[in-house]
UniProtKB/TrEMBL annotation:
Organism annotation: Aliishimia ponticola
PROSITE patterns membership: ABC_TRANSPORTER_1, ABC_TRANSPORTER_2
Coiled coil spans: none
Annotated SUPFAM superfamilies: P-loop containing nucleoside triphosphate hydrolases (SSF52540)
The protein, known as: Amino acid ABC transporter ATP-binding protein
InterPro entries in the record: AAA+_ATPase, ABC_SmlMolc_Importer, ABC_transporter-like_ATP-bd, ABC_transporter-like_CS, P-loop_NTPase
Keywords attached to this entry: ATP-binding, Nucleotide-binding, Transport
GO molecular function: ATP binding; ATP hydrolysis activity
Domain (ABC transporter): residue spans on this chain: 7-231
UniProt-listed Pfam families: ABC_tran
Length: 238
């Protein structure tokens, strides 16, 4: 299997109704560890993640992977801020992506039960997924994304509106996915989470990459006034 990374973004622009939402963006990501995308509300974090994953339309520029695009898309998954649960049990929600890939039901359910163990939902396998709490839904959605062993996982605000314990559980799952070799690209407003998970940071302002670098450098020595102000918790306008 060829490499998915590096990911190369050249002069990428997304516009809607005559308004430029993102771009031009230039980025090179190697795919090691977690890249955290930071920026004020409306700076383009969600749009950038969706562009990279191929679920938002690119108006100009190029996004290229080191393997063919269809293969790259098969090797990625996306966890949304508000996960949609299928009208099925927790077990069947977890098994679903494997069924879509042609894995026989019995094997898919065996794998789903193992994943449930890993993400801490094995006591609720038969429960309808739609009655789960926000934190439980987010864990199932993560399990559903990880069950096909993606090389890259996108996450858009994975623990927004979750409490400390649920956030910690989500981060534990992410840390172990990261250790197992899954690259993460994650948008978050939670600066504690960014500091705990990030290996690299991309800081967006007004739809453009304002600053980018290692997490150590970004948090200790931001290069721009705007990033320094953002880290201090000052209001930074897009
Ligand atoms: N389909 C669309 N049509 C028009 N404008 C859009 C569309 N999608 C997003 N936008 C606008 O693009 C800008 C960037 O939105 P985006 O959701 O990517 O930002 P964000 O950084 O993720 O924001 P937040 O932190 O509030 O979630 C915003 O001004 C938003 O209103």
């Amino acid at each position: 299997m060829s490499d998915l990374f590096p990911l190369t973004v050249r002069d990428a622009v997304a516009s809607r109704q005559g308004k430029r939402l993102v771009g031009p963006v230039n980025l090179d990501l190697s795919g090691q560890g977690a890249c955290v995308v930071l920026g004020p509300n409306g700076s383009g974090k969600t749009t950038l993640l969706r562009l990279l994953h191929g679920i938002a339309r690119l108006n100009k520029g190029q996004i290229t992977w080191s393997c063919p695009k269809a293969e790259a898309q098969r090797r990625q998954a996306f966890v949304f801020q508000h996960p949609v649960m299928l009208r099925r049990s927790v077990l069947d929600n977890l098994a679903y992506p494997l069924l879509l890939r042609g894995v026989p039901r019995k094997s898919a359910q065996t794998e789903a039960a193992k994943m449930a163990e890993r993400i801490g939902v094995s006591q609720m396998l038969d429960r309808p997924a739609r009655v789960l709490s926000g934190g439980e839904r987010q864990k199932v959605s993560l399990g559903r994304a990880l069950i096909c062993k993606p090389d890259l996982l996108f996450l858009d605000e994975p623990s927004a509106s979750l409490d400390g314990r649920a956030t910690r559980e989500i981060e534990d799952i992410l840390q172990s996915a990261k250790s197992a070799g899954t690259a993460l690209i994650l948008a978050t407003h939670d600066m504690g989470q960014a500091r705990r998970l990030a290996d690299r940071v991309v800081f967006l302002l007004g739809g453009q990459v304002h600053e980018e670098g290692t997490a150590t450098d970004f948090f200790a020595r931001p290069k721009t006034q705007e990033a320094a102000a953002f880290l201090k918790g000052d209001i930074v306008e897009c």
